[in-house]
Amino acid sequence: MPIVLYLIKSYFLTPKVNKNHLSTFYKNILIMFKGTLIAQIIAVISSLFIAKIYGSEAYGILSVFIGFSSILSVLNSLQLDNYIVTCKEEFTRNHWFNFLFILIPVMTVIGTLVLLPFYIIFFDKGMDFNVLMLALLSAILLSYNKTHEFFLTSNKNFSSISFAKILLVLINVFFQFAFYIKYSLYGLVYSSFISLLIVTLYFSFKNKNYFNAIDFKIIKTNLSFNSSIMTFLLPSRFINNLASQSIPLFIFAFFSLKDAGVYFFSQKILTMPLFIISSSISTVYFEKASSLMNTSKKELLKTTKKIIRFNVGTMFLFLVLMNTLGIYLLEMFLTDNWVNLRKYLLLLSFLVLSRSSFSPISNIIVVLDKNNISLLFNAILLVINCIAFYIGFIMHELTYTIYILSFLGGIAYLILTLYFLKIIKKQSYS
């Protein structure tokens, strides 16, 4: 951990910028980093034992549960929760915060009706009805938690967000072990739902003083001046989630539940450092980038480049280690139930590395108001997914699907990163 902190410090602290200004940024990242690091270490270590006792089929069910809830959660808020961070007036932020708590359950009902045909498909595949119902409820909780998190971000209360990440993992791990004996297949789903519920209650307690009446005139006015989020960001994020979260769903539908579980577990292992570092940085970066757009675009460019270099470098070292020593340790620990784990880890590595270049700075899309580019990019990702699954299906081989997803998706992420660096550079020297 001291090495990681040293690297972050060396990348973010430069003598050419205001040190007092930057030190706050650095401290906020460290607050988020420590919370995320602790949470992910607990999650990864425990997931090895969980994977060993539950097996790939249980992970397949979990992947379906997370896929449905994640896709629906994007629709729930209509991505209007982004206003909370970008709003300059505290008064307006408070109204948006309260408005979203009415909007989310309403949109859940509408979103459920929209996605009903997909649910029917999975009913026919034999998926337990309770899993899908819990996925609907979890989508509401995910949306509420994201709204709370954005509100705390706008108030720079990063310590509460960090604590929530640790709390979520601890509760989830506890119930995963507690439910195994009685719910050998669905224990992972039940524990995930309970942990989300408890964290939602924690966030509600932290923000209880901000639940007030809503001035809909303010909401309407704010919408008229920021229409691009509804026009571009909402369909963009929905398509993005559909492209990424639907992969285990389609693997389940076209191949097998065990294959879905192995894919999901492989992705989880590979993205561990991505969540440890990227999610810590991105939360703070969102607030910081919004501020720097009005004060120092050159500083924004320098900070963005350093974030990318650090993140990609860290991920590269991890992926090399994971595909050499790591895979041997995993295969020694896990049972034969995890067939093709080695293959999927290797194939997905390029995609994960490419994503690491953009993941920590992804909120720059909202800051620069380039939601139309995000929509185009995610539409391309969805097309890539369709092509990959079509080829894999007609060839009766999932390996082809994963290879195409990783290679073409990775190239797309690299192009996207270079594009936004170019935009920031152009604005910083204009």
Tell me the span between the first and last alpha carbons: 40 Å
Number of strands: 0
Would you tell me the overall average pLDDT?
79
Described by the principal axes of the CA atoms, the overall outline is globular
Q: Describe the biggest sheet?
A: none
Percent range of helical residues: over 70%
Give the domain tally: 1
Structural class: mainly alpha
Low-confidence stretches: 1-22
Please trace the helix and strand order, writing H or E for each element.
HHHHHHHHHHHHHHHHH
Proportion of beta-strand residues: under 5%
Task: Give the gist of this structure.
The protein is mainly α. Helix content is 85%, strand content 0%.
Keywords:
17 helices; globular; disordered N terminus; mainly alpha; 430 residues
Structure notes:
- The structure is a single chain.
- This protein has one domain.
- It contains 17 helices and no strands.
- The relative contact order is 0.12.
- Mean pLDDT is 79; it is low at 1-22.
- The chain has 430 residues and is mostly helical.
- The protein is globular and about 55 Å long.
Question: What topology emerges from the helices and strands here?
Answer:
Blueprint: H1 2-12, H2 19-54, H3 56-76, H4 82-86, H5 90-124, H6 129-154, H7 158-179, H8 187-206, H9 216-225, H10 228-254, H11 257-270, H12 272-295, H13 297-333, H14 341-358, H15 364-367, H16 371-395, H17 398-428
Helix pairs in contact: 1-13, 2-7, 2-12, 3-5, 3-6, 3-10, 3-11, 5-6, 5-9, 6-8, 7-8, 10-11, 10-16, 11-14, 12-13, 13-14, 13-17, 14-17, 16-17
